[in-house]
Specification:
About 80% of the residues lie in helices and about 0% in strands. The protein is mostly helical.
C-alpha cells in the first residue's frame, strides 16, 4: 500500500528533487511558489519535525538497548545520543558523501547479518515462529492490523520524503 501511495506521488517527488536538489528544498520550493510567510512557517515546522524525529529515534534506540541490556537508562541514554549528535553539529560536521557511504555500508552489513542468520534458521528447518505468527489472528482484527502495517510503512519512508 505504501509503495502504491509513493507511486502516485512520484512526479511530485521527481519535480521537486530535480528543480531544487539542495538542502531546504521544501523552503525553496514554497519560497518560489507562495509567500515568504508560508515558506518561513514551513521551514519552522520542518525544523520542529526534525527535532521531534531525533527525539523519537534516540528514545526508541535506547528503549531497544534497554531491552537487550537492562543496565541502560532510557532517558539518560537518549540525552547522551542527542548530545553526541548536537556536539557533532556544533563542531561543524555536516553531510558528506563519505558519511552517507559509511551509513549505507553499515546498513547493508546489518542486513547481510540478518539474512545469514535467517537463512541458517530456515536451513535447519525450524519453522515454529513462522507457523505461529501466521496461525495467530491479529488481536484486534485484520483491518486494524493492515492499518498499523500501513502507518508503520509510512513511518519507514519519512526520511525519504523529508529529505526533499
Amino acid at each position: 500500500l505504501v509503495a502504491v501511495i509513493l507511486f502516485l506521488f512520484r512526479s511530485i517527488y521527481s519535480e521537486v528533487g530535480s528543480a531544487l536538489p539542495l538542502n531546504g528544498g521544501t523552503y525553496n520550493l514554497l519560497l518560489n511558489t507562495t509567500t515568504k510567510f508560508a515558506a518561513a512557517l514551513s521551514a519552522s515546522l520542518t525544523l520542529l519535525s526534525y527535532v521531534a524525529t531525533a527525539v523519537v529515534c534516540a528514545t526508541s534506540s535506547m528503549a531497544y538497548l534497554h531491552e537487550v541490556w537492562g543496565d541502560v537508562d532510557v532517558f539518560w541514554g537518549a540525552i547522551l545520543v542527542l548530545g553526541f549528535f548536537a556536539s557533532l553539529a556544533l563542531l561543524g560536521i555536516t553531510e558528506s558523501a563519505f558519511g552517507s557511504l559509511l551509513i549505507f555500508v553499515v546498513h547493508i552489513l546489518s542486513l547481510l547479518v540478518f539474512v545469514i542468520f535467517a537463512s541458517n534458521f530456515v536451513w535447519n528447518g525450524d519453522w515454529f515462529f513462522l507457523e505461529y505468527n501466521w496461525g495467530t489472528a491479529p488481536p484486534r482484527g485484520d483491518a486494524l492490523a493492515i492499518y498499523f502495517g500501513f502507518t508503520t510503512g509510512l513511518l519507514g519512508i519519512t526520511g525519504f520524503e523529508t529529505s526533499a
